[in-house]
Amino acid sequence: MRTGVVIFPGSNCDRDMIVALRKITGKTPIKIWHKEYDIPNLDLIVIPGGFTFGDYLRCGALAARSPVITSIKNHISRGGTVLGVCNGFQILIEAKILPGSLIRNNKLLFTCRETTLEVQSCIKNPFLSGLKIGECLKIPVAHNEGNYFAPEDLLKQLKEEGRIALKYVKQKDNEKNYNPNGSTEDIAGILSKNGKVLGMMPHPERAINYLHGGTDGLKFLTNCVEQIIG
Amino acid sequence: MKVIVNVSRKEGVLDPEGQAIKSSLNNLGFEHCSDVRTGKQIILNLDQNNETEVLKQAKKMCEELLVNTVIENYEINILKD
To answer: Are the beta carbons of A65 and B13 separated by less than 8 Å?
Structure first.
């Protein structure tokens, strides 16, 4: 299993992601600098979280125009798998690899806490296919612009194509702030048309050790690796 | 030639910053302020004197980078000295 983690100026979850992938695969992922045009064949490319280019203009906008994005698009067109976490999700959206938009959290607050995610019934994909539909994962978020927005027709299309992968859910009936950012229909993560690209706001690499408060992130990433290896 | 690009959020896209400003204005006694929408202005300096070409270039810049057309509208104006 060969994995790679993309690094931009301002990425700050790259090391945590490398630690997580090394723990699961037993191999150190390669680091891919944002100026690289040529990247080797990899089983999984992860775009980690951070504040690339200082979040200038729009979150992920400048990173999405970096040379490495062309290589990532080529990897995707060859059927390759890509996971974008947090700022990585914002970059995938800005690069138009995933549709819609991530706007400011509805309460104008940077939110950093644990959330409960529910696996949705969606198309076959290497990220969730080993997990049960309706299964809940506790994974933390930490973002300011994670409010997923899609125009109505796009939302309808995403539902019809089974591309809504993860949603924030309540744990108790009276829980009010289960959705940390006000995203449309509590969306936390969406898939590409072929299911090989997942963008998600929560950080699985921040829940891989009991000292983190939970290991559901490890469960999620381990499942990805197992699904990809087949 | 100087070009001013005004970027605003589309109708129906949540503008939490605008809402926070509105509620603050209402608190200050401006009760008639019923809505606030925020946006941004980008000023470009292009080494070009042909107006048509400048507008064409600015539009391309907007579509390729400056604007997220899913949620934003834009307006390009040439600043005359």
So the answer is: no
Residue type, A128: L
ipTM: 0.83
Enclosing domain of residue B75: 2-79
Is residue A141 within 8 Å of residue A201, measured between CB atoms?
Answer: yes
Half-sphere exposure (Cβ direction) of A42: Cα atoms closer than 13 Å: 27
The answer to whether the CB of A116 falls within 8 A of the CB of A68 is: no
User: Is A212 in the active site?
Assistant: no
A202 interfacial to chain B (CB closer than 8 Å): no
From the list A148, A159, A143, the residue with the least C-alpha distance to A203 is A143
Q: Do B16 and A151 touch (CB under 8 A)?
A: no
| Chain B residue with Cα closest to A147 | B14
Q: What is d(CA B21, CA A181) in angstroms, rounded to the nearest whole number?
A: 19
- Residues B5-61: pLDDT tens digits? 999 999 888 888 899 899 999 999 999 999 999 999 999 999 998 999 999 999 999
Tokens of A60: 């992920």
Which DSSP helix (H) or strand (E) runs through A221? Answer: helix A216-229
- Cα gap B17→B19, rounded to integer Å: 5
CATH tag, A3-229: 3.40.50.880
pLDDT tens for each residue of A27-80 = 999 999 999 998 999 999 999 999 999 999 999 999 999 999 999 999 999 999
Please tell me the total count of domains within chain B: 1
Contact indicator for A52, A8 with CB cutoff of 8 Å: yes
- Nearest residue on chain B to A99, judged by CA atoms? B70
Chain B environment of A99 (Cβ under 8 Å): 70
Q: Give backbone dihedrals phi and psi of A58, rounded to 5 degrees, phi first.
A: -150, 155
Q: Can A203 be counted among the known catalytic residues?
A: yes
Residue boundaries of the structural domains of chain A: 3-229
